[in-house]
Amino acid sequence: MKANDIRQEALEAEQRIRPYVRETPVEFSSYLSKRGNCKVFLKLENIQLSGSFKFRGAVNKLLSLSKKDRAKGVVTASSGNHGCAFAHACHILDLKGTIYLPSYASPAKIEAIRQYDVELLFYGDDCGQETEVYARNIAEETGQVYISPYNDPKVIGGQGTIGIELERQLKQIDSVFVCVGGGGLIGGIAGYLKSKDKNIEIIGCQPENSAVMYESIKAGQIIEMVSQTTLSDGSAGGIEPGAITFEICRDYVDDYILVSEKEIKDAILFVLEKHQMIIEGAAAVTVASFLKRKHRLSGKRVVLVISGAKISLEILKNIICEG
Q1: Cα(131)–Cα(136) distance, rounded to whole angstroms?
Q2: Angle (nearest 5°) at CA 162 between 128 and 97
Q3: Each residue of 249-297: pLDDT tens digit?
Q4: Which domains are present in the chain?
Q5: Mind giving me the DSSP string for 16-51?
Q6: Model confidence pLDDT, tens digit, residues 153-162
């Protein structure tokens, strides 16, 4: 997809989903701004409905389906946040849904999904390379529509509405830091913003333990690699073969930053202490990446996308105790 195509998808999504989603606020961070000698703004998708940005893409795709397709029921695969968003969207739209999760899905996200009347099943140890492929095959066998977490123009367009909001909320943007898993979030934001201003720098942020998109871009093709355990469970795992997000990330993401598990923990604690907000590991990846790159951002206006909020109390307790 080209930037103008993503822009068009985002504009159509804006009209389609606006009655259903929140326009999340942008919060100025004096603490991070002082650290980088710049102006830092947090885009708070952690308070989006269902607890993450994923609701935008999921509800946009479901709303775009025909009545006939909706009536058959819908299937998806997720490492957690997309599953929560999908379940919430199915509830709002009164659809029958089935969700496949990988074995490492966060307990907090599993519990959140179980609050809805959807079928929840588990398959595989890698969401992108196993769970998504299996769920897509099941959907084809049953004649149902598969709702990808990222590999779909309507999902990418839904996430791109964040770019539309940022355009309304901020007069100038120099750099945007976005956590990267399958690439739907950063693809939507990058495509929309760069269709208007090619000089906006888009930075992809990933944990060292699961940097599949980064390694794939380096290799020039989507690769299979084993991901290690990471606090950024929302971005963990491989990329579905043939994903359209690969070329989007290749063409529109300017640079990547990889962060360690300790840096993610420190970022979670930083946001909790300074902003009194609980955020999940994937959201903390952008904060950790900014802190790692801050020396190169002096005088700039920087956006950190805080992608989600769901972190288990047990993990949070351990992070606080270690901190």
Answers
A1: 9
A2: 45
A3: 999 999 999 999 999 999 999 999 999 999 999 999 999 999 999 999 9
A4: 3-52+153-322 (3.40.50.1100), 54-147 (3.40.50.1100)
A5: HHTTTS----EEEEHHHHHHHTSEEEEEEGGGSGGG
A6: 999 999 999 9
